[in-house]
Write a structure and sequence with these properties.
Layout (H helix, E strand, L loop, with lengths): L1 E2 L5 E6 L20 E8 L4 E2 L4 E5 L12 E3 L3 E4 L5 E6 L5 E6 L4 E7 L2 E9 L4 E5 L1 H6 L4
Length: 143
Amino acid sequence: MGLSPDHRYLYVNTRPWPRGYVITNPLQPPPIAQEIDIHVIDLVTLKQVGTMLRAHKAYTPNNECFFIFLDVCNEYVASGAEDKHGYLWDRHYGVCLAKFPHSDVVNSVAFNPCDPEMLVTTSDDFTVKVWRSRAVVHSLGLK
């Protein structure tokens, strides 16, 4: 989960159960979806709003729970994924802007609170990667 900077919107990663499924035995929950969705909830109206982002595909068995953490800043939403990528989304239009590769599951992402054009991703490949926008890399003379 992640809050928008103004604390009005809550962003939540989910792997939903089948629509309309009725749980008859709590010890045998239904299989969860293979897709991971990002839902946006307006905390003033308590309603789901905007675009539901179908972020990425899940690869762990659909009877297991897996945590993927996201982060939100003024313009962007970032999320890890089981497909070995971090994702950057336009927060207002729900468009995927970039994918950040790793060699294993990306569990967590975080924006630099002072520079939202810097994103950090962490992965089961035992790496922490720092990503910058192309404009910043160019302006700093970095390769």
